[in-house]
């Protein structure tokens, strides 16, 4: 299943998404050993890092009268408002120390424009501003994208869908991801990914 044109994209394995972090994903730290185990199978690895300036538009604190997990209507559409998280240069924005993906060749930072969020590793939430990842993968001849990380129903979901849309094969390694699950978003994400042609696999499938 993993070949020379395969790449592992590990999404947002940062302290703010881990238990104790400001936007903790339930059981989020449980994926780290799984990611490390599958990571050994990949020669090509890309990491992503959610990387917001202070006062970012996705923060509820930037919208008077709103609270975390409310929704706001922004110029590019509906935006879930989050607790302040992954602020550039803070300890919460750092990648987990136990991540052992030392062979990673690229770190894509996203969400750094003050007025636009970016769940996806490929396109910002305006759906037009590219991060550069598609071009990088194409130039490297990498066509099969395996996704792991946090959160299944936000950044993993959007990244997987955009990967397919950009012409890549996308496979999500289910047990190497955890979701936030806001109002049924996790089941919806899996349904939507399947409909888009994203394959759902387990780490055990890769070890066979
Ligand atoms: C994420 C919410 C806000 C994610 C990032 O990594 O899934 N979720 N920013
Ligand atoms: Zn974010």
How large a portion of the residues is in β-strands, by DSSP E? 15-25%
CATH architecture: 3-Layer(aba) Sandwich
- The Cα radius of gyration reads 16 Å
Small-molecule binders: pyrazine-2-carboxylic acid, zinc ion
The helix fraction, in percent, is 10-25%
CATH class: Alpha Beta
User: What fold name goes in the CATH topology slot?
Assistant: Rossmann fold
Order of helices and strands: EHEEEEHEHEHEH
* CATH superfamily membership: Isochorismatase-like
Report on the structure:
This protein has a single domain (6-53, 96-207), classed as Rossmann fold (3-Layer(aba) Sandwich). 23% of the residues lie in helices and 22% in strands. It contains five helices and eight strands; from the N terminus they run E-H-E-E-E-E-H-E-H-E-H-E-H. Strands 5-2-1-6-7-8 form a six-stranded parallel sheet. Helix 3 (152-165) runs parallel beside helix 4. The radius of gyration is 16 Å and the shape is globular. The mean pLDDT is 98. Residues 12, 17, 50, 82, 119, 150-151, 154-155 line the site of pyrazine-2-carboxylic acid.
Short characterization:
It is built from five helices and eight strands.
């Amino acid at each position: 299943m993993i070949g020379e044109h395969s790449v592992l994209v590990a999404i947002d394995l940062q302290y703010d998404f881990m238990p104790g972090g400001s936007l903790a994903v339930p059981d989020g730290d449980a994926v780290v050993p799984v990611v490390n185990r599958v990571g050994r199978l990949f020669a090509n690895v890309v990491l992503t890092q959610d990387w917001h300036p202070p006062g970012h538009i996705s923060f509820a604190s930037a919208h008077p009268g709103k609270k975390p997990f409310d929704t706001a209507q922004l110029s590019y559409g509906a935006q879930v408002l989050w607790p302040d998280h992954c602020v550039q240069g803070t300890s919460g924005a750092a990648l987990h120390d136990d991540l052992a993906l030392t062979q990673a060749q690229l770190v894509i930072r996203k969400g750094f424009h003050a007025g636009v969020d970016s769940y996806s590793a490929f396109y910002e939430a305006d759906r037009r501003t590219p991060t550069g990842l598609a071009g990088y993968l194409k130039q490297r001849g990498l066509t099969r994208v395996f996704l792991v990380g946090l959160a299944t129903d936000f950044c993993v979901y959007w990244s997987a869908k955009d990967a397919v849309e950009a012409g890549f094969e996308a496979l999500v390694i289910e047990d190497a991801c955890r979701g936030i699950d806001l109002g049924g978003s996790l089941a919806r994400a899996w349904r939507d990914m399947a409909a888009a042609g994203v394959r759902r696999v387990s780490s055990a499938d890769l070890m066979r």
